[in-house]
Amino acid sequence: MTITCEVSLYPLVEDYEPLIFEVISTLKANASVEVNTHAMSTFIKGEHAEVFESLAEVYSLPAMATKASSLVIKIINRDLPVEAGIIF
């Protein structure tokens, strides 16, 4: 089943950009999922097992364990057309 997942990362530190860039780079390195980055969140689309594997990889990054951060994840069980920034 194809799912669409919206991920928002909120590092609770002053120097937050490096962690956000690392997370996005890690997601984009997985050729099994489609990654679309928007201003406030990133969308991941693909087979549910691949999407969850990508999320687990991001969550296990050493930087995630050493910095205080909030990772907000929303999942819908369908393929949303998020490529152009429109989800309806």
Topology:
Elements: E1 2-11, H1 17-28, E2 34-37, E3 42-47, H2 48-59, H3 62-66, E4 69-76
Any overview of this molecule?
There is one protein chain. This protein is α+β, with helices and mostly antiparallel strands. It has a single domain (2-74), classed as Alpha-Beta Plaits. 33% of the residues lie in helices and 32% in strands. Strands 2-3-1-4 form a four-stranded antiparallel sheet. The longest helix has 12 residues, at 17-28.
Summary tags:
88 residues; alpha+beta; four-stranded antiparallel sheet; 4 strands; 33% helix; globular
Quick take:
By secondary structure, this protein is of the alpha+beta class. It contains three helices and four strands, in the order βαββααβ. Helices cover 33% and strands 32% of the residues.
> In CATH terms, what is the architecture?
2-Layer Sandwich
CATH topology, by name, is Alpha-Beta Plaits
Q: Compute the gyration radius: what is it?
A: 13 Å
- What would you call the structural class? alpha+beta
CATH class: Alpha Beta
Helix and strand run: EHEEHHE
Please outline the major beta sheet. 4 strands, antiparallel
Poorly predicted regions are: none
Mean pLDDT: 88
Helix content: 25-40%
Name the shape in a single word: globular
- Tally of strands: 4
Q: How many distinct helices?
A: 3
Strand content: 25-35%
Biggest sheet strand line-up: 2-3-1-4
| Tally of structural domains | 1
**Terminus-to-terminus distance:** 20 Å
